[in-house]
Amino acid sequence: MTSESPGRIVLLTASHRVAPGLLSWPAWQALRGADRVLCPVAHHPQLPYLKEAGVAVEHLRPTAEELVAACAGGRTVLVLPSGEGDRDLTDGLARLAGSGRFAMPDLELLPGSYDLPGARLLDLVQVMDRIRRACPWSSRQTHTGLAKYGIEEAYELVEAIEDGTREELREELGDVLLQVVFHARIAEEHPEEPFSVDDVAGTLVEKLVHRHPHVFGDATAETPEDVKAHWLRTKAVEKQRDSVTDGVPLGQPGLALAAKLAGRVRTAGLDVPPPAGEGIGYELLHLAARAEAEGVDPEAALRAAARAYRDAIRAAEGL
């Protein structure tokens, strides 16, 4: 004589970052095949779509014991937990299974939808929006007031790249991303020319596609040098600049500025050597131009030498 089947519990999860109703085929099969479908959340985003599909849903928040009992006789009970899950229910099921006093149903965790790559960026935008509205400090910030943080975070990112751990790199990338999202959120409030983070991303996508015809078009590029040439030609057409120096930010660090100007001159094929003059500034200008010609980033080279100098100082101090 066979014992009665303890049945089956299906916990159907769905990403809140995917439009409700866009469930996988196995999820719809499980919903239609279940003896009972329970949902403890009265305003679960999937409910209107399940109703439209003819799936009967009971608004119940069962305990672990009640759920096990509902599966008796081989029945399948599907539960739609909230986006945050139902810790009390899962902990209760684990407790019952560990007690050894219950014939436990089979338990299946069935993902009904999955996050696409980049989905957590939606969470970031949502969190930033709430902070902008509710935080006394963040709600008063302006583009101008935040500018210094953008510079600081960029330098901290460079330091993490050159001398940090993977964890530090991940954190500093997040801090730089925060500046982008924060500025985009502020930009939404402009009375005449608002734009959003979607507009920022859309502009960037268009630029990347346009400047990579060897990836998205019919052009060919076999080497990194070919790619750079494509990029520079496209930028020249887009910007319609009068001088190769147009678009070079003069506020960047001096060595980087000198190297950038020397690079523009070299790429354009101009014969404009660095001017001769008296003083350390002209000497540094010539060194930066030489570094650029040799493929060396003078800022990175000086930072590396400065770190070695720092280590020598600490060694002399006995640290």
UniProtKB/TrEMBL annotation:
<dbReference type="InterPro" id="IPR048015">
    <property type="entry name" value="NTP-PPase_MazG-like_N"/>
</dbReference>
<protein>
    <submittedName>
        <fullName>Nucleoside triphosphate pyrophosphohydrolase</fullName>
    </submittedName>
</protein>
<dbReference type="InterPro" id="IPR035996">
    <property type="entry name" value="4pyrrol_Methylase_sf"/>
</dbReference>
<dbReference type="InterPro" id="IPR004518">
    <property type="entry name" value="MazG-like_dom"/>
</dbReference>
<dbReference type="InterPro" id="IPR011551">
    <property type="entry name" value="NTP_PyrPHydrolase_MazG"/>
</dbReference>
<dbReference type="Pfam" id="PF03819">
    <property type="entry name" value="MazG"/>
</dbReference>
<feature type="domain" description="NTP pyrophosphohydrolase MazG-like">
    <location>
        <begin position="141"/>
        <end position="216"/>
    </location>
</feature>
